[in-house]
Specification:
Layout (H helix, E strand, L loop, with lengths): L2 H19 L4 E2 L10 H17 L2 E4 L2 H9 L3 E3 L2 E3 L4 H9 L4 E3 L8 E3 L3 E4 L7 E4 L3 E4 L2 H13 L21 H12 L4 E2 L5 H15 L1 H6 L3 E7 L4 E3 H12 L3 E9 L8 H22 L5 E4 L1 E5 L6 E2 L3 H17 L3 E3 L11 H17 L3 E2 L5 E2 L4 E3 H11 L2 H5 L6 H4 L1 H5 L11 H6 L15 H6 L5 H15 L7 H16 L7
Parallel strand pairs: 2-12, 7-18, 8-20, 10-11, 11-13, 13-14, 13-15, 14-17, 17-18
Antiparallel strand pairs: 1-7, 2-4, 3-4, 5-6, 8-9, 15-16, 19-20
Length: 508
């Protein structure tokens, strides 16, 4: 082996060793916050069943789904599906897994999804990106790859995510091919598939069949994909059709109502939670009819809104209460729960971005969310993926491991011997217990500056955003791709090129 190849192999081995040491997901011991009694939750469940029975779910332009629902006992009237009380719940609880493993191409990166586990993924779906030097601009495939690389290198993010930003420099009907390939090529963490059309979902499945093999795919989950309800009380062809593709192939789907209270649902917390439950149960039930046992996640994205502008608002009390309520409903239903993130309506990394993100992220941890989408990078209500914001959010996410462990009641945690042997008025700085724990006792930010004013000024007086920008540049400069089977990589590229050439470019 040549010297450069030996050096590359050594670096790859070192990265693999480091990956093994990284915690691939969090395990929660801290009890989730409960804001409603069991009686209160039962009322919301009853009202959700009433909605499903009397209002029903409208499904436009997807006749096949109507027959699928009818086959399981739902009443179909035109494009409207009405569900007898308890039907959706019984379909879900009969077969949907409470916990499942999503396999990564590096087995050490595979994640567990469901209670008591917590998995963080970056933000999703932004057409714009922002950094200090380039400002706000349309995202490109280079930006997409950059965020995949940053996520791969960030230990507090366990999952590569999906559409980390929308590469508008590629045709709409073909960009999913390069996005999925980028997750495969530039990271070895688990990732999400395409849902913008059922054919693109199928393309995603076909690609992972090359990567993992047909037999493995049939028995294991390697994809997790996001399907949003068209709130209020509607599912469309692209979302439900894509969910069908993934369910048929034993892959996981996040069924998530997008609720902007006051626009897509009534303004009250209980009503937003009720509608979220109804819409999500219809989607999850659909997947279980298609293939009993296909993994599903109960998703919730609920926001308040400005009554002056109609724009979504974040870090406010009402969505926090919806989050706590819906998380409890998911636990009662017995399925994994997705929500949360570092949300903000701010356009830049400023004080508003900091407090809105901190409030929404702390609520996420307190609610006991299992899969946290939008954990890093979210700006401008999701319209923009911020480079510096990504770094700052990921730093905040790194504290979750400590918080989720709760209070340590081991002998070391109680530290009674240290207190008994340390006399009154004597500090603990030199105590044996302190020396044994000082490296791991406290979570420490990698971005915050805790030095004196003089030291901070001498080192350039950089604010947190400037420091985060330096981290972005350093990480991208140091990035090295994880090892990948060269034959499978070549087969994937050949398949993508052949698929891309088989139909014309389109902007839809």
């Amino acid at each position: 082996m040549s010297e450069p190849r030996r050096g590359r192999a050594a670096r790859q081995a070192a990265r693999t060793a480091k990956a093994i040491e990284t915690i691939p997901y969090l395990t929660r011991t801290l009890a989730p916050v409960e804001v409603l009694s069991q009686e209160g939750l039962e009322i919301i469940e009853h009202n959700a069943d009433t909605l499903l029975e009397q209002v029903g779910i409208d499904i436009g332009n997807y006749p096949e789904s109507l027959e699928i629902f009818r086959s399981a006992g739902a009443d179909v009237d035109g494009t409207r599906v009405h569900f007898p009380p308890g039907l959706c719940r019984s379909l879900i609880t009969a077969s949907a897994p409470k916990v499942f493993r999503q396999h990564a191409r590096n087995p050490e990166r595979s994640v567990m999804i469901g209670d008591p586990y917590m998995v963080f993924a970056p933000a999703y779906g932004s057409p714009f990106v922002r950094d200090l030097e380039g400002g706000r601009r349309y995202a490109t495939i280079e930006d997409f790859r950059n965020f995949v690389k940053l996520t791969y290198m960030t230990s507090s993010l366990h999952h590569s995510g999906g559409t980390v930003c929308e590469p508008v420099d590629l045709p709409v009907n073909k960009r999913h091919l390069e996005m999925v390939y980028s997750h495969i090529k530039y990271s070895d963490k688990p990732f999400m598939g395409s849902v913008t059309h059922p054919s693109r979902a199928q393309d995603t499945v076909d690609m992972v069949r090359i990567l993992f093999g047909d037999d493995f795919i049939e028995q294991n989950t390697v994809l997790l994909s996001l399907a949003n309800a068209n709130s209020p009380m509607s599912w469309d062809f692209n979302m439900l059709g894509s969910a069908k593709v993934y369910a048929e192939n034993n892959q996981a789907t996040l069924l998530t109502p997008f609720i902007l209270a006051g626009a897509m649902a009534p303004v009250t917390v209980a009503a937003a939670a009720t509608q979220t439950l109804a819409e999500a149960m219809a989607g999850m039930a659909f997947c279980q009819i298609v293939r009993p046992g296909a993994p599903v996640l109960f998703g919730s994205f609920a926001s308040s809104m400005s009554m002056q502008s109609g724009a979504p608002t974040f870090g406010t009390p009402e969505p926090t209460l919806v989050l706590f309520t819906v998380a409890a409903l998911a636990r009662r239903l017995g399925v994994p729960f997705r929500s949360g993130g570092n949300f903000t309506a701010s356009k830049i990394c400023d004080y508003q971005a900091a407090y809105e993100s901190a409030i929404s992220f702390m609520s996420t941890m307190q609610a006991g969310v299992n899969f946290v989408l939008h954990a890093a990078g979210w700006l401008e209500g999701g319209l923009t993926m911020g480079y510096e914001k990504f770094i700052l959010d990921a730093d905040q996410a790194s504290m979750a491991e400590k918080l989720m462990k709760g209070v340590d009641l081991t002998d070391n945690g109680l530290a009674l011997e240290a207190m008994l042997t340390n006399g009154p008025g004597q500090h603990f700085l030199g105590a044996e217990h302190t020396l044994a724990n000082f490296e791991t006792a406290f979570w420490s930010s990698r971005i915050a500056d805790n030095n004196s004013f003089e030291q901070w000024e001498m080192e350039g007086a950089a604010d947190s955003v400037t420091r985060a920008g330096r981290v972005v540049k350093r990480m991208l400069a140091e990035y090295e791709a994880p090892a990948i089977d060269e034959a499978k990589d070549a087969e994937l590229r050949e398949w993508i090129d052949r698929r891309r050439a088989s139909f014309p470019d389109s902007d839809v």
